């Protein structure tokens, strides 16, 4: 379906336009990781991407519009969920993916900058919410399948289980400045599995939906 009045940067073009978009998003990610959100400048990003300033201003309009497109692209390009056949294996794979992302010098710095910006910029906050909504939806089926196998109670909130895996890893990065290590990722996955099996994420009576649900 073609969106008629999409926001800047939401159209998915092909050919040369796609190459320009890829170059600009790459440059924006580099600049964001190096300088933070407050120092982003569309002219500087155009220079880094080796494209005309008018192209960047016409297509994205604002820094917030460009960051929103960057996050959307990152969500689409992220690795698909792993299916190991067990909830413990799936959540460990999820935790390890999050850990590797946050431990990466560029990606870790980029997420810290975007999270900081989201506290004061509404459009960035909405883009970040959509990013995590996409990623939670990608991984939520592993909990739904676990419920079908009888590993967790019926009605287990799949989205909350996935959030419970990544939350302590982000908390560690943001409160200590230190990326989570493999042991932290394993603990996060094991804690989420234990809580899910104990029914901590199940609604009374097992009537809650097991899909991704809201991401508030």
Automatic annotation (TrEMBL):
Pfam families assigned to the protein according to its UniProt record, in alphabetical order: TetR_C_11 (PF16859), TetR_N (PF00440)
Keywords for this protein: DNA-binding, Transcription, Transcription regulation
Domain of life: Bacteria
InterPro entries: Homeodomain-like_sf, HTH-type_TetR-like_transc_reg, HTH_TetR, Tet_transcr_reg_TetR-rel_C_sf, TetR_C
Keyword NAD: no
HTH tetR-type domain: residues covered: 18-78
Coiled-coil residues: none
Location of the DNA-binding region in this protein: 41-60
Protein name listed in UniProt: TetR/AcrR family transcriptional regulator
Lineage per the UniProt record: Bacteria, Bacillati, Actinomycetota, Actinomycetes, Kitasatosporales
């Amino acid at each position: 379906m073609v969106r008629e009045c999409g926001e800047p940067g939401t159209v998915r073009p092909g050919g040369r336009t796609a190459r320009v978009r890829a170059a600009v998003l790459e440059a924006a990610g580099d600049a964001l990781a190096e300088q933070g959100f407050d120092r982003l400048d569309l002219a500087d990003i155009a220079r880094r991407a080796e494209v005309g300033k008018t192209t960047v201003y016409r297509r994205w309009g604002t820094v917030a519009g460009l960051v929103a497109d960057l996050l959307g692209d990152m969500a689409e390009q992220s690795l698909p969920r792993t299916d190991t056949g067990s909830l413990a294996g799936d959540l460990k794979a999820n935790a390890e993916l999050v850990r590797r992302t946050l431990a990466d010098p560029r990606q870790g710095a980029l997420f810290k900058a975007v999270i900081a910006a989201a506290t004061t910029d509404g459009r960035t906050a909405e883009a970040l919410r959509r990013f995590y909504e996409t990623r939670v939806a990608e991984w939520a089926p592993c909990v739904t399948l676990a419920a079908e196998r009888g590993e967790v109670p019926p009605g287990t909130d799949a989205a909350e289980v996935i959030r419970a895996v990544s939350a302590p890893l982000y908390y560690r990065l943001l409160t200590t400045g230190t990326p989570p290590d493999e042991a932290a990722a394993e603990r996060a996955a094991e804690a989420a599995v234990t809580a899910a099996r104990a029914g901590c994420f199940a609604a009374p009576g097992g009537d809650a939906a097991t899909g991704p649900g809201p991401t508030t």
